[in-house]
């Protein structure tokens, strides 16, 4: 069975550090057998503010469909002013009501320049995900001092942080493999028996 993971980077700043951290998590996802990663590039989507018409409705529909078909989602957000980034919130606001995130397991990866890390934004993201009916997973990975942890080429300078970021990927896959897939197989088995 193919496991489809959608990743969304909540920073659209050229050269942003959230993307660098997300790249580490994506590498980990790509190492796992049977996993297909679909990365959403918010900078290319031109998402409308809530209530305004979309300039490119087809792109928004594609975005929603991609998320609706995902087995799980990895959300990576920078901490901006003690909360999630506005691009990340706009992405979630454009995922429909009821949300296409509903029922999806969500791994949260938070990135901050400050020493405290992305605690506030990660908690906020967890609350928003739960509010729209998604299943935010218990381990949220928060990376502090991000601008000292990665160099400008996007290479992580600290093996422990690299391992921590990787756990955002493995937590998601472990949940899918251990909690979601057995349920899917059991359902398939029962349906086969009934047929
Ligand atoms: C509008 C804005 C607000 C920010 N607020 C915070 C903050 O509250 N706490 C913090 O640690 N870093 C803050 N930062 C710094 C970001 O965490 C930093 O830019 C980091 O590299 C992650 O963002 P990036 O992925 O856009 O690079 C802020 C940056 C911006 C652009």
From TrEMBL:
* A Gene Ontology molecular function term of the record: oxidoreductase activity, acting on NAD(P)H, quinone or similar compound as acceptor
Top-rank lineage group of the source organism: Bacteria
Q: Which UniProt keywords apply?
A: Flavoprotein, FMN
Q: What do the Gene Ontology cellular component annotations say?
A: cytosol
InterPro entries in the record = Flavoprotein-like_sf (IPR029039), FMN_Rdtase-like_dom (IPR005025), NAD(P)H-dep_reductase (IPR050712)
Q: Which cofactors does this gene product need?
A: FMN
Pfam assignment, any one: FMN_red
Segments forming domain NADPH-dependent FMN reductase-like = 4-145
Name of the protein in question: NAD(P)H-dependent FMN reductase
**Source species of the chain:** Marinobacter zhejiangensis
